[in-house]
Design goal:
Layout lengths: L6 H17 L4 H4 L5 H10 L18 H13 L5 H14 L3 H8 L5 E6 L4 E3 L2 E3 L1 E5 L6 E6 L2 E6 L5 E3 L9 E5 L5 E6 L1 H32 L1 E2 L2 E2 L4 H30 L4 H26 L11 H11 L6 H10 L6
């Protein structure tokens, strides 16, 4: 297993970082420059990101989970839109189910995919899936991706009864959705796709952890109290250092789990579940440090610090919550690799 990024991977990471800083700076939340989902999805499709892991004969770039993770991590650093997770998975699922038209519409940014997370165990039968779900990125979505009973379902949302709900993370549109009468566009085995989703979520969480630390580092270099920069005080310096260490821990495990998943290693599930847990812990704790060390302004709407915390809380239960992953890890047999 080669742990050093190759030239292509480094270029993908650098390009993603430049795009996020130029097109999605944190200042967009307050200067009215936040881009609607539709145009942003089109831009990402034109850059080839939504098809990055599709085979070349399917119009993709022929890369894989490692390259997906590099982009999603940079997206997390700027609290970027989450629709890319479901779009990547939806395009790959449509391709696996031999639906080239659906695949091309999703990968080309013409159709959006929402993520449906069950509010209670869903009923799976020969005709499809039944139950209620909370749907993320529901606005401008043509399909909903849901998981139940070890299967994945791509559901058509045309005419769906959607009930928008208020949400802490205002950048993500959230709604309740009755899945009972939605047409099944694609249905198939979902374990690997679910694990892929957990990996992509871990990438966004790792980026959130890094972005939160970067934000408070910048603030500590300019904010003064008693005639000194606050970064000179141990009460500020040490928590920032601990946050940076947590970010590096999450990043290292994220990259290793992506390589293990891409290689189909026997320990891939263990690594991905661990990466999701560690990344969430890093993101939530670093977001808390960012808020606390900013002082009184840290809890206000005028500062973007609260967005890191809200996004970390939202992503915490995507593709399995803490208890689910911990239980799976504790019950897993010991492996000899």
């Amino acid at each position: 297993m080669d742990l050093i990024p190759n030239v292509d991977q480094q270029q993908i990471s650098d390009l993603a970082a430049d795009f996020m800083q130029n097109e999605l700076p944190l200042s967009r939340f307050h200067d009215g420059a936040e881009m609607p989902i539709g145009p942003l999805r089109t831009m990402m499709a034109e850059m080839g990101w939504l098809a990055i892991s599709l085979p070349e004969d399917a119009g993709g770039a022929g890369f894989g989970p490692v390259e997906e993770v590099l982009i999603l991590r940079q997206l997390g650093r700027v609290v970027g839109p989450t629709f890319m997770v479901s779009s990547l998975l939806g395009a790959k699922f449509a391709d696996a189910q031999q639906l080239p038209g659906v695949r091309d519409d999703i990968a080309g940014g013409r159709r959006g995919v929402a993520l449906a997370i069950a509010e209670a165990p869903l009923a799976v039968g020969p005709g499809g899936i039944a139950g209620r779900a909370t749907v993320y990125d529901a606005a401008d979505a043509d399909y909903a991706l849901a998981f139940a009973g070890g299967e994945a379902f791509l559901l058509g949302m045309e005419g769906a009864r959607i009930t928008p709900v208020p949400w802490l993370d205002a950048a993500t549109s959230v709604a309740h959705l009755d899945l009972n009468d939605l047409p099944v566009v694609a249905r198939g085995v979902g374990e690997a796709l679910f694990l892929n989703g957990a990996l992509l979520t871990a990438a966004m969480l790792t980026g959130l952890a890094e972005g939160a630390v970067s934000m408070i580092q910048d603030y500590a270099k300019v904010r003064e109290t008693f005639g000194r920069k606050i970064g000179a005080y141990q009460a500020v310096r040490h928590p920032i250092a601990e946050g940076a260490a947590r970010s590096e821990h999450a990043k290292a495990l994220l990259h290793y789990s992506a390589l293990a998943f891409a290689a189909g290693r026997a320990d891939a599930e263990l690594q991905v579940r661990s990466a999701k847990l560690i990344a969430h812990r890093a993101a939530s704790r670093n977001a808390d440090i960012n808020i606390q060390l900013h002082g009184g302004i840290g809890i206000t709407e005028e500062l973007a610090a609260h967005r890191f915390m809200k996004r970390a809380l939202m992503l915490s239960h995507w593709f399995g919550g803490r208890k689910e992953h911990l239980d799976a890890l504790l019950d897993a047999p010991l492996l000899t690799i």
